[in-house]
């Protein structure tokens, strides 16, 4: 299948590589020319903007930072809408505001372009090994048609509901992940302050009810002081901003989300916004005047 892929960042680059490995023909676009050249070296063709991509592809995937970027690529000057043929399918795998997903989808539908919102969870490691979790919103028959394409990049692909539901699920995911990471950091700091070895405490509790995928992914990073980003704090701030905006629009109570957002904003003020979100440990270390790392 010939697929346009727009957005070759920390997630998009490995995702597009997995599509090539699965045998798909790609036309790629990104402002990062080095990333484009890397994909071209693997057999992809390049395009300068969304309009050029849509001129040659009836299936397009976008993986972009936030709502304004998706809107620009889809609807702006040089955007997909300028050249896309009726029946073109846009699968937006970015994590954006679900309200904006619906608005973009409605504008595209007037030109006969169908949109799915299909944000992912798993960070760079799972993007590389092709085991992402994908949450999809949109028309069920379109989802069914592109399920195998999405599985080329994923370990699980789940249909959630109408357009926007994918991003609602993603924001719910990000709420749980943020609160979980904060809880792990708090528990390890508590253990260290109380005189116990936080690594041994982690080993003791990971097999019980407290155990989680988040704990197993992030506790070792905290214990080693390794905050090389798999998912940067600045990106989680973006997701929590979208979650808070969506929650406030429907008066959903999100007090824990608000608290973790303030922790992340503090870390941004400390200059840690490029760190992995496991660097929430630094927030607790600063408050507790202690270092979790052995």
Q: Could you explain how this protein is built, in words?
A:
- This protein has 294 residues and is of the alpha/beta class.
- The chain is 53% helix and 14% strand.
- The chain contains 13 helices and nine strands.
- The strands form two sheets. The chain has a six-stranded parallel sheet with strand order 3-2-1-4-5-6, sandwiched between helices. A three-stranded mixed sheet has the order 7-8-9.
- Helix 2 (33-41) links the parallel strand 2 and strand 3.
- Helix 8 packs across helix 10 (213-224) and helix 11 packs antiparallel against helix 12.
- The mean pLDDT is 96.
Largest sheet: 6 strands, parallel
Global morphology: elongated
How are the strands of the biggest sheet laid out side by side? 3-2-1-4-5-6
- Cα-to-Cα separation, first versus last residue: 50 Å
Q: Number of DSSP helices?
A: 13
Output mean pLDDT: 96
Radius of gyration of CA atoms, rounded to a whole number: 20 Å
Number of strands: 9
What class, by secondary structure content?
Answer: alpha/beta
Q: Uncertain spans, ≥5 residues at pLDDT below 50?
A: none
């Amino acid at each position: 299948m010939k697929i346009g892929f727009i957005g070759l960042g920390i997630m998009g680059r490995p995702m597009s590589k997995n599509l090539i490995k699965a045998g798909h023909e790609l036309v790629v676009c990104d402002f990062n020319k080095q990333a484009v050249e890397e994909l071209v070296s693997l057999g992809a063709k390049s395009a300068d903007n969304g309009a050029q991509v849509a001129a040659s592809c009836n299936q397009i995937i976008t993986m972009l930072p936030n709502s304004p970027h998706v809107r620009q690529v889809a609807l702006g000057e040089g955007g997909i809408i300028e050249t896309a043929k009726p029946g073109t399918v846009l699968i937006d795998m970015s994590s954006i505001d679900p309200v904006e997903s619906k608005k973009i989808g409605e504008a595209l539908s007037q030109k006969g372009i169908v949109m799915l919102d299909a944000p992912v969870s798993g960070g760079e490691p799972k993007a590389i090994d092709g085991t992402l979790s994908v949450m999809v919103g949109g028309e069920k028959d379109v989802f069914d048609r592109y399920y195998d394409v999405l599985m080329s990049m994923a370990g699980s692909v789940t249909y959630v509901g109408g357009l926007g539901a994918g991003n609602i699920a993603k924001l719910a995911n990000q709420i749980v992940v943020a609160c979980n990471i904060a809880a792990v950091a708090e528990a390890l700091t508590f253990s260290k302050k109380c005189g116990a070895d936080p690594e041994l405490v982690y080993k003791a509790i990971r097999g019980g009810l407290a155990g989680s995928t988040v704990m197993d992914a992030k506790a070792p990073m905290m214990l080693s002081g390794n905050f090389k980003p798999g998912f940067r704090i600045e990106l989680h701030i973006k997701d929590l901003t979208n979650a808070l905006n969506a929650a406030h629009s429907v008066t959903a109570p999100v007090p824990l989300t608000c608290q973790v957002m303030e922790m992340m904003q503090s870390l941004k003020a400390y200059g840690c916004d490029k760190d992995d979100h496991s660097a929430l440990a630094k927030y607790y270390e600063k408050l507790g005047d202690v270092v979790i790392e052995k």
